[in-house]
Amino acid sequence: MTSAIEPPGYPALARPFGRRMLLVGGAAVAVGGLLDVRSAHAEPVRRDPFGLGVASGDPLPEGVVLWTRLVADPYDAASMDRRAVHVEWEVAADERFSRVVQRGSEIARPELAHSVHADVCGLRPGRDYWYRFRTGRYVSPVGRTRTAPAAAAEPGRLRFGVVNCQDWQNGYWPAYRGLAAEDLDVVLHLGDYIYEYDPHSRFPDRRHTTPQTPGLDQLSTLPDYRARHAQYKTDPALQAAHAAFPWIVTWDDHETENNYAGLVDEVDDTGARHQDAAQFARQRAAAYQAYYEHMPLRQPIRPGSADYRLYRRFEFGDLVRLNVLDTRQYRTDQAGNHPDDFGPIADGLGNTSGTLTGAAQERWLAHGLTSSRARWNVVAQQVMMSQIRFPNFLDPQHPLPPIANLDQWDGYDPARARLLTLLRDARVSNPVVLAGDIHSSWFSDLRITRDDLHEAPVAVEFTATSVSSDFPIAFDGPLKALNPTLNPHVRYFDGSKRGYLRMTVDRERWVTDARTVDTIATRDAPVSTTASWATVNGTPGLVPA
User: Can you give the pLDDT at residue 398?
Assistant: First the structure.
C-alpha cells in the first residue's frame, strides 16, 4: 500500500534498538502506541505473531521490499485463522526510530499464509535504514536494510555476502552468526534455502517437519512446503542474518525437488515418488508459492500457478550490474537419463538443444551483458559453470576416464559455450560468475577452450561452499590431488569446510574471501578466512589476493 514521507522531528521512541539487539533477531515486544495508526481490525491477533522474524530484499536506489509473516503455530498456517490482518510498518533513518521517513500498511491475507511484502519507495540511494512491523499490540524485531547507490553514482566500494545450501538436518548454522556480524551492503542467496527430505537427523532438535505423505522423502503440498520454510525461518542465526542486511534470493532445486528440470521429475524417482508433468506442475506451484510467502520478493505471485518469474537485474551505480538467473524453471532435462545425473562428459558436449535458462532468459541475459556500462558484470546463478571433470566414483575400481555432473553447466556445454563466446566477442567488462549447489568452494578461470591454458580467461567464477549441507569428505583429498591434472583451470578448491563468501569490490579489484567454520555440530563456532583470491579490472583471471 502507499507509504508517506514523515516530516522531520517525529517524536523519538521510548525504547532504543541497538545493533546487538538487531543481530540476535530481537524478541517481539508488546508496546502500546508505538505506531500512530491503529489496526483496522479489532485485535485479531491474540499472541506475538512475529516468530519468523523480519527480512528485507531486492534493494533499489529508492526502495526496498520489507517482509514478515504472521504466525500462531509456525508449522500450521491455518492456525492464524481465515481473517485478513492489518499490518503497519515504518522505516527510520536511525535505529532508535527518532527520524521516521516512511510509514505504511499492508493486509496480511490467509491465501498467502499471512505473509507481508511491503514495497517501500521514496528512500534515498546508498543509505542505511531500520524498519519494523506492528499488528495490534505486537511489534516485530527491528531489521536493518540498505538501498542501492544511485544509477549515476560512482561507488568506491561494495561488499557482498554469498550463501547457499542450508540443510537443516545436517547441522547448525554458525556461519550465519558470522555473516550477521559482517559489514555488507547486500547478501545473495543462490539456492537450496530449504531441503525437501523426510525427517532424519543425528541432532534431535534438527529433524525436519513431517510431510502429509511421509515415506516419499519429498514434499508435495502447500502445507508441506509452508511448514518446512517456517521451520527454517525459526532458526535464530538465520533470522539475525536476514535482519542485518537486504537479501537478493534465487532458488535452485531443493526448494521444490532434487534435480528437477522444468516440469520433469527427478530422474531417480520411481513408483509412488514418480510424477508426470501435470502432477509435478501442481507440486511446483505449491513450492513456488511457499517460497514467495517466505522471501522478500517484489514480484507478486499468482496462488496456484506453477510459474513465477524470478530472474531479474540489479544496478549498484556504475560499479556492478547484477544479473540473477533461474536455472531450474526453464531448463531442459539433464542429458543421458543417468542415475544422480552423473555420466559421460560426451553427453554434455553433445547436448546441442539443451538449455539451463530457456530462450527468453538467455536473450534477456545477453542484452543485460552487452548493454551494460558497469565496471563489473555479475551472473549470479545456481550451478557451476566451470568445466569440471570428476574421477569416476561410480566405478571406484576404474576412476578414469573421468565423468561429469550433468546437472551443472557441464551437462549443457553448447549453451555454456554460447555464453562464454558472447562475453569474449562483446568485450563485456569484467564478467564474474557466482554459483553454489555443490557444497564446496571452487574458484576458477573460465575459458572457452577448457584445456588451453594459454588462452586468456573470459571470466572468473566463485562457487560458494554450503552453510551446512554435506560434501562427501572422502572426495576432498582426491579432488585436491587430481584437480591440477583434471581441472587445471581451478585455482582453489576445498570441500572440507562450511561457510559463505565475502566479496569486496572496488574500482580496480574484486576480492573474494572464503569465510568458513570448523564445525556445524554446535550453534556457535568462530568464522575465519581460509582463502582469498582476486581478479583485477581489465585482466580476466584469478590471482591470490
Answer: 82
Complete DSSP assignment for 285-304: HHHHHHHHHTS--SS---TT
Contact 140, 151 (CB under 8 A): no
Q: Which three cell numbers stand for residue 237?
A: 542465526
Name which of 466, 516, 438, 521 is nearest 165 in CA terms.
466
Q: Give the CA-trace dihedral at 120, 110, 235, 49, to 10 degrees.
A: 80
| DSSP 8-state symbol, 390 | B
Buried b (16+ CB within 10 A) or exposed e, 252-286: bbbbbbbbbbbbbbbbebeeebebeeeebbebbbb
pTM over 0.85: yes
Rounded Cα–Cα distance for residues 305 and 289 (Å): 8
List pLDDT tens digits, range 380-397: 999 999 999 999 988 888
**Angstrom distance (rounded) from CA 321 to CA 37:** 39
Tens-digit pLDDT profile for residues 147-169: 999 999 999 999 999 999 999 99
C-alpha cell at 488: 587445471
Domains and CATH numbers, the chain: 4-146 (2.60.40.380), 159-193+243-254+306-544 (3.60.21.70)
Cell of 91: 522505516
Can you list the positions of beta strands (E) in 157-311?
A: 157-163, 186-189, 246-249
All three cell numbers of 370: 552487452
DSSP type of residue 417: H
Q: Are 227 and 212 in contact (CB under 8 A)?
A: no
